[in-house]
Amino acid sequence: MIESPVSEIAPGIFRVADTCNVYVVRDPDPSARTAFAVDFGDGRALDHLPEMGVDRITDVLMTHHHRDQGQGLPRAVAAGIRVHVPPAERDLFGDVEEMWQSRTLYNDYNLRQDKFSLLDSVPVHDVVPEYRRRTYAGTAVEVVPTPGHTTGSVSYLVERDGRHVAFTGDLVYAPGKVWSLAATQWTYVDNEGPAMTVLSCFQLMERHLDLLLPSHGEPMDDPRHALELLASRMGRYVDSRRAYPWDLRERWENPYVPLTEHLLLNNSSNACGYVLLSRTGAALFIDYGYDQYTGLPAGHDRASRRPWLGSLAALRRTYGVTAIEVALPTHYHDDHVAGMNLLREVEGTRIWAPTNIADILESPLEQDLPCTWYDPIPVDRRLPLGRGFTWQEYEIMVHHLPGHTLYAAAYEFVVDGVKVLATSDQQVGMGVPGGPREVLNYQYRNRFRIGDYQASAALYRRIAPQLMLSGHWPARWVTDDYLDMLAEEGDEQFQLHHELLHLDELEFGADGVLARIAPYHSRVAAGEVARFRIGVSNPRRTVQKAMLRVVVPLGWVAVPDVVAISLPPLGHEEIDIEVTVGGPRRRARVAVDVGIGELRLGQHAEALVDVTHTGST
Residue 186: helix, strand or coil by DSSP? Predict the structure, then answer.
């Protein structure tokens, strides 16, 4: 007689032994005879539904993207089961072909086990709502981010007959043990995954659980012991691979450092995040990127960048915060804004952004810029540059702060009697007068302009802040000598660029780009019309005639395809064009060949178009 792979672990919760442990959670209403599954293995659960008193599985909730968890998902889809996946890993289910087509093979230093993904994509019904509850098959399920085994892993918490049960995927195999150490190694030499495993254990230890159900291994009825032992052992493992020990418990429990009584630094985040506290109990965040950060995983795909809200429990516990009302970005880079959508969804936080940043947050691929976040970030309020606004008892002034990027702002406010200026990544905060230089942190693709740092030095002198908040370096108590040093370095930078570039002859600017096409990346259905705006600048101090010739793939049609325009001295003009696209293809190139007077720039600017099957945009 063949032994059944099905066992009842708790009332109405069944384990099916498959390529992983698949858990089937039956609707508490016996008349419903439905259930949801946590992970799916090879789909064996579908062959044993009568043994579990179930007629139909309605939903499957995936803990992570590995193939042993979900290689049977095509069976689930064929049976009409809705597939729900972790937000960070959606593409590794719904568009895994992209990973297989683009994944580095040669000279590969990316050790993440993304190649243990599904062989083919499956339709995804939805992503699971992290930090929130949703009902599946009559059961309320709470979704808790638990990175470690993979970057995007989640655990599912349910209550059944008064017991709190956690489906933990491959976070923990047995008390103090994991299913795989190799899976936690996300980069070649660092310890992001093992350290995240420790933090995930701390998080679950706060939940007063009664039962852990792992994807591999046996049920654990003393969750605190199992997790505490794993956190202890994994913490020792992390320290064994570092030059100095890392107090991860202190990092988890006390991530915030007071700069003044009502101004905090999030010491656990990648880019510095700041919290302005109101006497009402409300909080305002300045930047919110990668919280409780243990290092950047290898790769640049969506699954390699996972924001979470790891420090918020400590913020409430230690400082009595009752609401995170507003988040302000200093600029659009992912390490400063990655967590803002999650703040909005979970905490109801409103995003207030300066006018020069808002468009990029909402349309991150409209321009060709580095370090954009993967998803649009809706902006609830646009803040005019050079004007102030009120939040709670604070008056906050917004200043344009180009340099590190054209699309940046500084925030000026007074807290606890101290005048503060948040300048983020404008300069690397290491320099001291008479000692090491202050490094001006500019990148040309960020649209740095010659003279930006002279302007910022003048702004600092005019505002005369007492405390300057940096984006990655310690906050600085400001002296006149420091402001003098920044002014001298701004002048030096201006002079060097004029010595090195041919600016007396041609005003190319710092980045040498005279024409751009927007949107830089777009999607359009086959046979439809894509619309673009081409901007061109005159590098000469006299009127010039510009000839623009649009270059498109064979069979596409641009209207107009050739345009002549008059450019005023050092002026800028824009034109609109329409392009009728051909059949489906990925990242088709549209370009513009530019001539300005006698200056031939050739195919100076490009844009990318994903052409989809009709109706699939």
Answer: coil
